[in-house]
Amino acid sequence: MKLIVCAIVVFASGVPHLSAVEATHGEISADKLHFFESKIRPVLVEQCYKCHSTESEKVKGGLRLDTREATIQGGESGHPGITPGNLVESSLYEAITWANDDMQMPPKNKLPEDVIANFKKWIEMGAPDPRESKVGDNAGAKREINMTEGRKHWAFQPPIKTQLPKLKTEGWAVSDVDRWILAGLEKGGLKPMPPADRQTLIRRISYDLTGLPPTPEEVDAYVKDRSPSATERIVDQYLESPRFGERWARHWLDVVRYAESSGKEVNLLYPHAWRYRDYVIDAFNRDKPYDQFLKEQIAGDLMRYENKRDQAEKIVATGFLAIGAKGHNNRDRRQFNLDLVDEQIDALSQSMLGLTLACARCHDHKFDPVTQRDYYALAGIFLSSETLYGTHQQLQNNNPSSLIELESEAQQVSALAKIRPEEVAELKRRHEAAKKVSEEAQKEVLALRREDRERGGAASFLKIRAARDREESVKADLDQFHNDGTPRTLTMGVLDRDRPVNSALLVRGDLKQPAETVPRGLVEVLCAEGEPRNISEGSGRLDLAWFIASKENPLTARVMVNRIWLKLMGSGLVSTPDNFGVMGQKPSHPELLDALALSFMDKGWSVKRMIREILLSRSYQMSSTYDPDNFALDPDNKLHWRMNQRRLEAEAIRDAMLAVAGNLNLYPVDGSPVARATEGREGFFTLNRELAGKPYNYRSIYLPIVRDLIPESLTVFDFPDASLVNGERDSTNVPSQSLFLMNNPQVLSAADAMAARIAKHPGNTMERLTYAYQLTFARLPTEAELAAIRSFWMRFAQQANDGKNTQQARDQAQYAALSAFCQSLFASAEFRYLN
C-alpha cells in the first residue's frame, strides 16, 4: 500500500522521482518478495535482459529492466515502465500484452497468459522489487556470500535449551509454554486474560482438532465434568478421532500445493493424485513420526519396507514431488524438466525448511546465504529422478508421462469398480478402431502431400491430431484395467533414473547458457563448515531426505512446530511460516520456539504430542476478551495476552453446515471424482456431470481440487492458490461471503435439512429453537436472544402463511420459518468464528 500511495504522489506531475518510490528490503513483505523472485525476476532475466540491461550490447529504446529504478523510469518514450498499482500507466504491461501494435515485447513470441497474469498481479500489488543500484556500482556485479557470516543467522543456528525464566506472577503457568508466554507478557507490562468458559473452550478444541463442531451431548458432558482431567480427556478423545487426520491433513495439503490437475495453460487432470491425499490423512491419524513423514515424501521409493503394503505407502508418499503445477504444452522437453525440478525445489524448500531456495535459479540468492551452485546441486538430484504423473499424449500436452503400478499384494483401494471382461474386450476393440482411424488419417495426409505440397495444411494436421488424440484417450482408459476387469493400482510418484546426472549451472537460469557442471549435493549453509556435501552414488534423494529430517538440521523442527502453533493459536511465533530466511520475520518468542522444537524431536517427532502440549496450556485456553490497556501496548497480540479470534476456514464452514444439518457423510471416500473422469478434455465434462448428479455431502477434504476450478464453497472463504506453498491462509470478511450464505443452493439445502432435523427434536417450539443454538454455537441462547427468537418466530410464521388459516398453510409457514431461522444461524458471525 505504501508503494502505491508513493506512486500516486510522484506521478501526479508526470515525472517520476525515483527517491519517492524507493523501498528498503524490510518494507517489502516476505510473500511479495517471493512472488517477485519466483514469478517476475526469472522472466525479466530470460526474456528481457538480452536487450534491456547494462549487459546488452545496445540498450534498445533506452529501456533498462535490470534495476527497480530503471524499470520504473522507462525508456526513450518518456512513459514510465512501471507505475506501481496502475496498469494503465505501466508501459511494460502494455508491451507484454501486445495491446499496442507498435510496442510488443518480446517481439517474436508473446509471453504465456499465466506469465502476463503474474505481471498484472505484481503491478497491482505495488510492484515490489528489491533490486537496487547505486551511483558508481556495477549493476551486474556478483554478490559475494560469506558462509561463515551466513551461518550466524538465527534460523541457521541449532535450537538451544534455555533456562526457564523467573516469573513475578505465581500460579498462572502450568507448563513451559505458559512460562515463556507469561515472561514475555510481564516484560511488556501486560497481563493474561482469564480462561475461556467451558462451552467456548470445547468448541475451540473440537474445531481445532477435528474441523467439526462438538455435539450438544459432548458439550453437556464436558461442562458437567468438573474433574481436573476433564480437558485432557476431551483433547485425547478428539486426537484419536478419525476426523483428526482429515482436519490436519488439509493443513499439510495447503503447504504442499495439493491439487488434482496441472493448472497453467493446459489444465490436465491428475486422476491418481488422491492417493497422496489419503496417505497424508492416514499419516496424521496414525501419528507417523514427522521425520519419517518427510523422508517418505522425498525418497519413499528408496527406503526399506516391511511388506508390500508398506512399500506401496512409501511410493505413494513421493506423490508430493509429482502433484505440482506443470506447463504441459512446453515443446522443449529439457525446459519442461528444468521447470519441473524448479517447482519441486521450491515446494520442498518452503514446506520443509522454510527457505526460498528456488530464488537461486538465475543468480545467487539476493538475501539468504544460498548460492546458485547450491541450487544446481539440488537440481541434479531431481534431474536424476523420474517424475511420473500420468498424462497421455494429446494436443497441447507435449510432455506425457506414465504412472507407477503398485503390486496387488499391497492391497491398496481403487477409485474404480471392477468391470466385466467383456467390457475390457470392448475397450480393446475401440482402441484398435481408433488406432486404425489414426493410421488411415496419416496415410491420407501423406498422399495429399505427395500430390500437392500446398495442399492440406492446418486442416490435415488437425485431422491427424484428432485421430491420434482419440486413440491415446481410449488407450488411457484401457490401461486402467487388467484383462479380467480388475482395476490396476496406479499412483503418481518419483523413481530413480537408471543413471544419475549432474546439472550444469545455467547462467541466468537460461538453458542455452550452460556453465560448469555442479556435482549433486546439499545446501552449504545448512552443513557444518568443511562437512562433505557432494553425492557420488544414486540420485541423492535418500541423502537429501536424511539431511532434511535430521535432528542436526536447524530448520526442520522449528518450521513444523511453528506451523502447529499457527494453526492452534491464530498466528505463528514466526509470522512468515514459509520463510525463515533473512527476509522472514524473527520469532516473537525465540526461546519458546526452540523449546518446542527440541521437545518435538525428543518426543519422537510426534505431531499429536506437540498439539496436546499446546492445547493443555493456559496460553491456549485463554479467552479472547478485549482489554484496552493490553491493546494499547500490544494491538497485534504478538505477545499473546489473549486468544486470537479466528474465522473458520472454508472447509470447516461447509462441513459444519452439513454436520448440524445431519447430512454430513463421514464415510471416507475411495478415490476421487477426478479418478472416475475420463482423461483429456472430456474428463472435465464427466467430472461436472458426477458432481452435479447428486449431493456431494462428504467432508470437504474429499472435494476434487482442480486448479482454476475450485468449488465456490471453498473459494468464497479464501481457499489458497493450489499451485503455491501456503502455510497461512488469508482470512477476509467481504460481502460475497454474506451473499453466498444467503443465496447459495447448498446453503439453502443445508438450512432445509437442519430445519427438518430440528422439527423432529422433542419438546415445544422454543425448545427446538434452543437446540438449534446448541448445534450451531455449542451454547444456550441468552435471555435477550430468547426474546428475539420469540419475536422472529411470531412475525415470520404469520407472514409466511400468506393469510391462509389451513393446517397445511400453517405447517408450511412453520417449516419456512424454521428453515430461515437455521439459515440465519449459518450466516451469523458467531458460526463462522472461533472465540
UniProtKB/TrEMBL annotation:
Residues 48-108 form the Cytochrome C Planctomycete-type domain. Residues 424-451 form a coiled coil. This is Cytochrome c553. Residues 177-385 form the DUF1549 domain. Residues 540-792 form the DUF1553 domain. Keywords: Coiled coil. The keyword Coiled coil applies. It comes from the Bacteria.
